[in-house]
Amino acid sequence: MTPDDALFRFRLRAFALAGELGNVRAACRAMGIHPSTYYAWRRQLLRFGPEILRPRERRPPRMPNSTSPLVEQRALAFALGHPGFGPARIAAELARPLWGGIRLSPNGVWRVLRRHGLNTRSRRLGLVAGYAAPPEPRGAGPEPERHIEVDHPGEIVQMDCFCIGRLSGTRGTVWQYTAIDVASAYTWAELHVTPRKPLAHWTSALAQRVAHDLAARGWQLEAVMSDNGSEFRSQEFERAVERLRARHLFIHAGRPQTNGCVERVQETILEECWKPAFARYLIPKYTGLRLDLDRYLRYSNTDRATPAATPAAAPRSRSSARRRCGRADPDPSADLGDRTA
């Protein structure tokens, strides 16, 4: 029983006791209320019925600095349209002219999402997918940051493969082949189908594409860093790297943190591209996922809201760039652009 229910029953009991005793004042003394209060309730009871005796629900006060309903609706719509984005990213995107130049702090975005029960990625993805997703597990404490010192684009490019899975209508396993320039955070990614494991043919083709894109902007691919998978250990990939006049660096076994830039960007693609895509699709298809990946990479490399320039913009300086390769996003402040300086 809630306090409102208890108060409602108390008021009904006052009228019942007055009827039993036949004396209003005696009933009021027994219930501890003033007779004028009893008659005020009685007038409302005769006019509106017993339900009027229930306590009125108090409307939450409107604070002068509260978020307007229009801004709140736009923030919710954007969050559901991009369920993989966090409050900081949503606030940065809403501030762009493309989305109306809405000024809302990351904390304000989080409070709007919390009021509607959408303050976690799993809840937003669950609503988009149409089911109640399980809560996210509590993450461990922050780890010490690990860095790789690089001076310019092309000095180190990290590569890795990520398993998307088996899709309806596709014979084999869909793999994502990913590469990222450590200095600029510029990302390349492709989807290909293989019978089981990733193939050196596609990793070699991706390395050639990376070298071609760097050369088109005046930069040389100097080193490729990868794990010890067969798609990178094969002679075909080694010969492809040698033809590009680059070095091949291997990380230590059991230490994926060394390859952390590409590991992190694959996690970002998973959260911001694949999870929303699989939540929207009734039956995911290979062609549709390739289009989604191309669209996301165009946004991430050329159009995303960042504190500095986008990865595809022209660099302003050739100063040394310190890149995070732990669990944090690579800093895109040094950019992959035309080598004019």
Description:
The protein has helices at residues 3-21, 24-31, 35-48, 69-81, 87-94, 106-115, 121-129, 200-216, 230-233, 235-243, 260-280, 286-303, and strands spanning 147-150, 157-165, 173-181, 187-194, 223-226, 247-250, 321-324. With 341 residues, it is α/β, with parallel strands linked by helices. Helix 7 packs parallel to helix 11, helix 8 packs parallel to helix 10 and helix 11 (260-280) crosses helix 12 (286-303). The relative contact order is 0.10. The protein is 44% helix and 12% strand. The protein folds into three domains: 3-53; 69-129, no CATH class; 148-324, Ribonuclease H-like superfamily/Ribonuclease H (Nucleotidyltransferase, domain 5), CATH 3.30.420.10. The longest helix is centred in the C-terminal third of the chain and has 21 residues, at 260-280.
Give a quick summary of the entry.
By secondary structure, this protein is of the alpha/beta class.
Average pLDDT works out at 85
Name the CATH superfamily assignment of the largest domain: Ribonuclease H-like superfamily/Ribonuclease H
Q: Report the major sheet.
A: 5 strands, mixed
Structural class of the secondary structure composition?
A: alpha/beta
User: What is the percent of helical residues?
Assistant: 40-55%
Gross geometry: elongated
Under the CATH scheme, which class of the largest domain? Alpha Beta
Tell me what the CATH architecture of the largest domain is.
Answer: 2-Layer Sandwich
- The structural domain count equals 3
**Elements, N to C (H/E):** HHHHHHHEEEEHEHHEHHE
Radius of gyration: 31 Å
